[in-house]
From TrEMBL:
Bilayer-spanning residue ranges: 6-26, 38-58, 88-112, 133-153, 165-187
Domain of life: Bacteria
InterPro entries: Gate_dom (IPR011642)
Lineage, top ranks: Bacteria, Bacillati, Bacillota, Clostridia, Eubacteriales
Any Pfam family the entry gives: Gate
Alphabetical UniProt keywords: Membrane, Transmembrane, Transmembrane helix
Domain Nucleoside transporter/FeoB GTPase Gate: 42-155
Protein name, entry field: Spore maturation protein A
Length: 191
């Protein structure tokens, strides 16, 4: 559906531009935007390779395992049904740990696996369980210890200090996760 909306907006904007005599400005804007997009992507590739490599080293060195050990007792308190399944808890812990360290590519398969395992525990098939909803909230508002993607984008765009957002990102994501967990736990009582 969203594809249709974007298509209609683009076509309508181009047609209005042509009928108002701004066809040349539209062509120039299209060319300029494709050029700047290409430059951003090329600049971002090298930086993303660096961060992915750094995160892979953190994973191989056992940093993610240590973080997972710290998270497990806390998550067992939050996830009532999932705490009974080692597979579900393992996938949840690995997903959240990978997201915290900026390994979003590695987090996705764990997130899918976590939802599959949570669905196995779900007594009402076709309807999200409380644990599934809570996991989705925590995954969406995951606390970022190292927001490597944002740092990479800021560096690619020429920021003087791309890492300055680490502390604000930690505060913002911790606040979002806390509010999300509280709302989820409160709403579980009514729905």
């Amino acid at each position: 559906m969203i594809n249709y909306i974007w298509f209609i907006l683009l076509v309508f904007g181009i047609l209005v531009g042509i009928f108002t005599g701004n066809g040349e400005a539209i062509s120039k804007a299209i060319i300029d935007s494709t050029s700047s997009t290409t430059n951003l992507i090329l600049g971002l590739m090298g930086i993303m390779c660096f961060w992915c490599g750094t995160m892979k080293v953190a994973e191989k060195s056992g940093l993610t395992s240590k973080l997972a050990k710290v998270l497990t007792p806390i998550l067992k308190l939050l996830f009532r049904d999932a705490s009974k399944s080692e597979k579900a808890m393992g996938a949840i812990v690995m997903n959240l740990t990978a997201n915290m360290l900026g390994l979003s590519n590695a987090a996705t398969p764990f997130g899918i696996k976590a939802m599959e395992e949570l669905d196995k525990l779900n007594p009402q098939k076709g309807r999200a369980s409380n644990d599934m909803a809570l996991f989705l909230v925590m995954n969406a508002a995951c606390i970022q210890i190292l927001p490597s993607t944002i740092i990479s984008i800021r560096a690619a765009e020429g920021s003087n200090n791309p890492g300055i957002i680490i502390i604000p990102a930690m505060i913002a994501t911790a606040t979002a996760a806390t509010v999300g967990i509280l709302c989820s736990k409160i709403l579980q009582r009514y729905f």
